[in-house]
Amino acid sequence: QVQLVESGGGLVQAGGSLRLSCAASGRTISTYAMGWFRQAPGKEREFVAAISRSGGSTYHASSVKGRFTISRDNAKNTLYLQMNNLKPEDTAVYYCAADLGRSPSSVVTTARQYGYWGQGTQVTVSS
User: Fold this and answer.
1) Nearest CA to 100 among 41, 42, 33?
2) What single DSSP character describes residue 41?
3) Pairing of strands 10-13, 121-126
4) DSSP notation for 66-126
5) What pLDDT score was predicted for residue 103?
């Protein structure tokens, strides 16, 4: 099975940028559809973005569309989330997730469909 470790979180001012990485080990991520989710204090986990196994299909939540971009490098076994023009409401713990067994072009947007999760990385955006 795959193990996922997020990195790249931190404290940034509103309008700034961060790039999150999710390094996978144990199995190649080319066999997994992958996604990013986030959870703010007192709120439920929220879908952010998803990408297909091939990387050819992506989907972003409306709240981040145009500001965040999900990508993957299967050769490096790493998933990314480029976050630009950050807002205070983006403050949350960000998690990457992997789902095995999807077709190469499928994206997965529902948390319960993901079988593997990282431990999360904190993103804090100050106003």
Assistant:
1) 33
2) T
3) parallel
4) TTEEEEEETTTTEEEEEE-S--GGG-EEEEEEEEES--TT-----GGG--EE---EEEEEE
5) 87
Tell me if 108 sits within 8 A of 50, measured CB to CB: yes
What confidence score (pLDDT) does residue 17 get? 98
pLDDT, averaged per 10 consecutive residues of the chain (127 residues), comes to 96 98 95 97 96 96 98 97 98 97 90 96 97
* 125 bridge partner residues: 12
> Two tokens at 78?
């790493």
Q: Would the CA dihedral through 95, 96, 98, 103 be positive or negative?
A: positive
**Amino acid 101: pLDDT:** 77
